[in-house]
Amino acid sequence: MSTATRSVPFSFGRLGIVAGNTFLEAVRQKLFNFLLLLAVALVASAQLFREFNFGSSELKFIADFGFGAMVFFGSTLTIAATAQLFFSEIENRTALTLLAKPIWRTEFIFGKLLGVFAVVGVFCALTTGLLLALIYNRETALMDANPEAFEAGRLIHYGDLLMMGVLQWLKFGVLAAITLLVASFSNTNLYTVVMGFFMLVICHLQYLARDAYSHVTALPLRLLVQGLGYVFPNFQVFNLADQIGIGQAIDPLVFVRVGGYALTYIVVFGALAVYSFSQREI
What we know:
Radius of gyration: 21 Å
Number of strands: 0
């Protein structure tokens, strides 16, 4: 904490200003618009690929295809935007100017995190809305063509699609916090981006290692793997789309628990990023 910040209390207003500027800077970048257009185009084309459903229902295939595109482009956007927005402040020396003023490094880090969180929120809202409209339109056409198959009503629970969009947003928030932690001690943008994707793979696959080592006889090794399972969040818990398209609904209690799981990791990794950044000489 600098001498200047000791004289002022923590302010959510300054944090909000940093978040707002980060958001505006992100949406002006070509990367955001490019990835958003690609994601929208791929989600919109899901209906064209429905013949390649590999035996699953057509509506489920469209949902899986759309959320797959959202996860791929959303993860890329989250990692690239977080690293680029952080290092642009460092390389342009604007961070030095900003932190010379009475502003806490906590406000700076969480402002950056909230700004990126807002950007991926816009991304998730647009792609989820488009996917919802596509599925609703296709299900309506199927009901008109084959009404006896829908005697019990619509198969899709559209509230579940919204919950899936929110969960993906929260998962991207966890990924942004992890990437920001890496950026807080990294010297280059490239290293942060590479490590961000590396962490993304670990978080998606860590459950395999935990399952594989859950029955080993060596207690230290088993405890080590279980401990690492808590250090790295399990991104598989955000995948609740298996029920979509087969007439089953997502349990709201599970949705709340997964949301709390994500928010906990966002706060913890954000706090670690603040501590790491406070030890850094700019």
